[in-house]
Amino acid sequence: MSDTQVTVGILGGGQLARMSACAAYRLGLRVAVAERTAGSPAGQITPLEFAGEWEDTAFMERFAAASDVVTLENEFIDAAILGRLEALGKPVYPGAATLALIQDKLVQKQTLAARGLPVAPFREVDGAADAQRCGAEWGYPFVLKARRNAYDGYGNRTVAAAAHLERAIGELGHPQRTLYAEAFVPFRMELATQVARGRDGAVRVYPVVETRQERHICKWVLAPAPVPEAVRQRARQLAVAAVEAVAGVGIFGVEFFLTRGNDVLINELAPRPHNTGHYTIEACCTSQFENHLRAVLGWPLGSPDLIVPAAAMVNLLGKRDGPLHLGDLPAALRQDAAKVHIYGKAE
Amino acid sequence: MSDTQVTVGILGGGQLARMSACAAYRLGLRVAVAERTAGSPAGQITPLEFAGEWEDTAFMERFAAASDVVTLENEFIDAAILGRLEALGKPVYPGAATLALIQDKLVQKQTLAARGLPVAPFREVDGAADAQRCGAEWGYPFVLKARRNAYDGYGNRTVAAAAHLERAIGELGHPQRTLYAEAFVPFRMELATQVARGRDGAVRVYPVVETRQERHICKWVLAPAPVPEAVRQRARQLAVAAVEAVAGVGIFGVEFFLTRGNDVLINELAPRPHNTGHYTIEACCTSQFENHLRAVLGWPLGSPDLIVPAAAMVNLLGKRDGPLHLGDLPAALRQDAAKVHIYGKAE
Predict the structure, then answer these.
(1) Which chain B residue shows the shortest CA-CA distance from A303?
(2) How far is residue B184 from each of residues A78, B62, B120, B137, measured CA to CA in Å?
(3) Hey, which residues 9-48 in chain A have their CB within 8 Å of chain B?
(4) What is the mean pLDDT of residues A75-87?
(5) Looking at the complex, does the CB of residue A204 fall below 8 Å from at least one CB of chain B?
(6) B337 touching A, CB under 8 A?
(7) Is any Cβ of chain B less than 8 angstroms from the Cβ of A309?
(8) Chain B hits for A25, Cβ within 8 Å
(9) Residue of A nearest to B6 (CA)
(10) What are the residue ranges of helices labelled H in chain B?
(11) Comparing B4 with B183, which gets the higher pLDDT?
């Protein structure tokens, strides 16, 4: 809170907050973390750990008082909570207005489509009749999704036939959760990039990467994507337009489908550092985490360019790949040029 | 203290501890910091901050109990204090025996010379008569140094003529502080490298760099040093031999003089990450800080190779270059490809 001790407050204490904190520490910043429980991956690495409920106004005011600027590490915090922080006069980036256009994925699609940006056909689904109409119009399979609080495939169902519709709708939590549907895109590749956008609207775009998802979870990333330069250029243009459509400030992850006809469709926008951009820590001049901080602080953005000809990143998950024991880490480190990041998650 | 939550304890809370902590966090480690006062650069970035005196046995036992392995960020902690931690059964790297051979610079010179390693002529100085003998034998100028607790030139005096001897000896604190003398080496360049040495004796050597010191403070570093490969090779061999001479485990900085005849003399050995090696964070496959942690944890060491053709690092100090205001930082960051590290020092 002084000239030489700027504190960045992060809503959420997961791995993305931890990696943001590491970037912050190299810039001489302090970091405050607000998470529901103590001992989160980011909470472990700061003395300014706040454990409590984001819905608790007094708690959030204490957190805000410790922070010069507030940012977030996931899109699940309700925009109204950000709005209350803004009403206190606290700078919040990305802000409530941006979150409101992103965290409801139906609203996100509508926002992008309203700007003329290419997305797969989509429609609100409030029950089986709506879903039936989607199948009739688009054919099967198509994709049912929860509008909010879905991540890593929890909250998505690919519906192969009309007979499975009722079950998928129920499994996704309808009617407690609101749903929407998207046409299935028979893509030949998935692409992603990250866009840093400053308070002044300046943008820097990271290399366009190929991503391989398995069961909706990012498995590996290859930078740059092995596609024609014109495709990469198109993806970069769309990414910037998407972030501008939501008036975003900070780093944004943008995912795309590359169709068999080499069309680029925007799949999803995330208002935070993105798991397809972790490679930027080692492989780019300025990591996505550092540029995120620079953006939310109103500082000039750094070069997002690769400092190596190419980079690959593999994502290992305890649940999928077996639990990690630190005893196994030495073997991983035996790969001479490999870089290993451990997120400090309890599971 | 559990399988998935290894804590590295660092004695000292300065910038080198802070940078080590950042590397630790990326490896999923926790960090404990012991410093005399709270709010140190490293203490700011961990919930496990211990503020107290290293000479306070109960304090050190609390710190040790929180740490799975103990390391240090400067050579000013008395070897006997490390010895007490080792007596508690705590792994300490570098250990008491290594520190005892390094922290007294006269003993360090004697240790290196006893191994036949090339150093400038040196001699213990216990008063003006000893110093006069140095001048008579080596000529002027020569260098008077405090044997212990000297850094960044505080504790060094270059004596230009016999008439200045008494004053220099007094200014260096004799007889309260013990002194020694070194012949002045009319070097054509200063070189440095870092050596990581594991618990198992495995070594990895960083690129040999040119360093420019101004008033005994590192001003800039150029990697690799613009000297013949044979010179770099010689420096690397000497660096490894020096670290082996003190049975070092962890990262060690080694400084050299390159004489006009292209001889390489060892100037100094530091049992910790070195300010001539900060460039390794961006420019090398594995930073000196990460390899330090890997060494003290008994993990395999990573490649120290450059991932870019060359790198330069400039060290800005508040006292020399004017106080830093965070308001100035945006201007520094406007250099597109520059990386800035702020150490969080109060001054």
Answers:
(1) B336
(2) 67, 45, 8, 12
(3) 18-19, 21-22, 25-31, 43-47
(4) 94
(5) no
(6) yes
(7) no
(8) 18, 21-22, 25, 45, 344
(9) A326
(10) 15-26, 57-65, 79-87, 96-102, 105-114, 128-138, 165-171, 229-245, 280-283, 288-297, 318-321, 329-333
(11) B183
User: Tokens 């472990």 sit at which residue?
Assistant: A44
Q: Which of B294, B299, B326 sits opposite A6 (nearest CB)?
A: B326
**pLDDT band, residue A151 (cuts 50/70/90):** low
Q: What is the ipTM of this complex?
A: 0.84
Give SS3 for B276: helix
Does the pLDDT value for residue A254 go beyond 70?
yes
Mean pLDDT to the nearest integer, A226-240:
97
Flag whether pLDDT at B179 surpasses 60: yes
Contact with chain B for residue A303, Cβ under 8 A: yes
CB spacing of B342 vs A26 below 8 angstroms:
yes
Q: Share the mean pLDDT of chain B.
A: 91
Q: Which of A5, A15, A26, A33 to probe by mutation at the B interface, max B CB count within 10 Å? A: A26
- Residue B29: its chain A contacts at CB < 8 A? 342
Long-range contacts of B84-91 (CB under 8 A, 24+ apart): B84/B57, B84/B60, B85/B60, B88/B61, B88/B64, B90/B64, B91/B296
Cα–Cα–Cα angle for A21, A26, A32, rounded to 5 degrees? 30
Closest by Cα among A67, A116, A117 to A89: A67
Provide the shortest C-alpha distance from residue B332 to chain A (in Å). 9
CA angle (B19 as vertex; A18, A284 as ends), nearest 5: 65
- Whole-number pLDDT of residue A2: 43
Residues of A in contact with B49 (CB under 8 A): 47
The whole-angstrom distance between residue A34's C-alpha and the CA centroid of its chain comes to 18
Residues of A in contact with B330 (CB under 8 A): 298-300
Q: What Cα–Cα distance (Å) separates residue A60 from each residue in A29, A40, B45? A: 20, 17, 21
B343: confidence class by pLDDT, cuts 50, 70, 90 = low
CB contact under 8 A, B342 and A294: no
Q: Which residue of A has its CA nearest to B332?
A: A300
- Is the Cβ pair B330, A3 closer than 8 Å? no
For the cut 60, the answer to whether the pLDDT of residue B321 exceeds it is: no
Q: Return d(Cα B326, Cα B314) in angstroms, integer.
A: 18
Confidence tier at A332 by pLDDT (50, 70, 90): low
Q: Name the residue among B26, B333, B341 with its Cβ closest to that of A302.
A: B333
Amino acid of residue B222:
L
pLDDT digits (tens, 9 = 90+) for A6-29: 999 999 999 999 999 999 999 999
- The answer to whether the CB of A44 falls within 8 A of the CB of B30 is yes
The residues, any chain, with a CB within 8 Å of residue A94's CB and separated by 6 or more, are A71, A72, A102, A246, A248, A249, A250, A252, A271, A272
pLDDT surpassing 80 at residue A318: no
Cβ atoms < 10 Å from Cβ of A241: 16
pTM for this model (two decimals): 0.88
- Distance, in angstroms, between A246 CA and closest chain B CA? 25
3-state secondary structure of B340: coil
Exposure b/e, B131-162, CB count within 10 A at least 16 = b: beebbeebebebbbbbbbbbeeeebbbbbeee
pLDDT of residue B1: 40
Tell me the pLDDT band of B312, cut-offs 50, 70 and 90: confident
Between A and B, how many residue pairs show a Cβ–Cβ distance under 8 A?
A: 127
